[in-house]
C-alpha cells in the first residue's frame, strides 16, 4: 500500500510547530534547585556543512563561548563576582556573558534577549537549557555597585593579560 506524502508546506509547518514546542518546554515554569555550575555549558562545538542543518545567523557565538571557557573567563567571573545568593538556575558568568553575547550577535537592548531565548539553535550553540530573560537580566544589572563594576573590570583585565 502506497502512502501519500504530505505537501512541503505541511512538513515545514509541523517542523516549526515542533521546534516552538521544544522552546516552550525549555522555558516552562520550573522550581530550580541551587546549581553548582553555570547554565552555559557548551565546551566542544563543531561546525558542519550538510544538506539538512539548522542555521544560526550568529554562528560564531559557539566559538566565542568556547574561547571564553578556554581563557578562564567563565571561571574567573564566577570566582570573583558575588551578586547572587543562590544560583537559580544561572551563575554570575551566565548573566554577564548573556549581556555580552547579546551585543555580539547584534542586540541593541536587553529586550533583544527575548529573540535569543526563543532561538533553539542559539541555545544549543551555547549548550544552555535557557538564558535569562530581559527582566531578570535587568534585575541582575541593577545589583551592580561601583565596587562590583571595578571587580568586573579587574577580572576582565586579569583574564585578558593571561591571554
SS field, number of helical segments? 8
Coarse shape: globular
User: What summary fits the major beta sheet?
Assistant: none
How many β-strands, per DSSP?
0
Question: Order of SSEs, N→C?
Answer: HHHHHHHH
Beta-strand content bin: under 5%
Poorly predicted regions: none
Mean pLDDT: 88
Distance between the termini: 64 Å
Question: What are the defining features of this structure?
Answer:
163 residues, mainly alpha, 8 helices, 0% strand
What secondary-structure arrangement, pairings included, does this model have?
Blueprint: H1 8-26, H2 61-70, H3 73-80, H4 92-104, H5 113-117, H6 120-126, H7 134-142, H8 146-162
Structure write-up:
This protein has 163 residues and is an all-alpha fold. It has a domain at 58-163. Helices cover 54% and strands 0% of the residues. The model has no long low-confidence stretch (mean pLDDT 88).
Write a short abstract of this structure.
The chain is 54% helix and 0% strand. The protein is mainly alpha-helical and 163 residues long.
Amino acid at each position: 500500500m502506497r502512502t501519500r506524502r504530505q505537501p512541503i508546506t505541511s512538513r515545514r509547518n509541523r517542523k516549526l510547530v515542533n521546534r516552538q514546542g521544544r522552546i516552550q518546554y525549555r522555558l516552562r515554569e520550573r522550581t530550580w534547585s541551587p546549581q553548582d555550575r553555570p547554565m552555559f555549558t557548551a565546551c566542544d562545538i563543531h561546525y558542519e556543512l550538510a544538506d539538512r542543518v539548522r542555521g544560526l545567523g550568529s554562528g560564531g557565538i559557539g566559538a566565542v563561548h568556547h574561547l571564553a571557557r578556554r581563557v578562564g573567563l567563565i571561571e574567573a567571573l564566577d570566582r570573583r563576582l558575588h551578586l547572587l545568593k543562590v544560583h537559580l538556575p544561572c551563575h554570575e558568568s551566565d548573566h554577564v556573558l548573556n549581556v555580552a553575547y547579546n551585543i555580539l550577535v547584534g542586540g541593541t537592548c536587553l529586550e533583544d534577549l527575548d529573540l535569543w531565548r526563543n532561538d533553539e539553535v542559539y541555545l544549543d550553540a551555547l549548550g544552555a537549557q535557557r538564558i535569562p530573560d530581559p527582566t531578570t537580566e535587568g534585575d541582575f544589572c541593577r545589583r551592580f555597585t561601583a565596587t562590583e563594576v571595578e571587580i568586573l573590570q579587574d577580572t576582565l583585565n586579569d583574564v585578558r593579560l593571561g591571554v
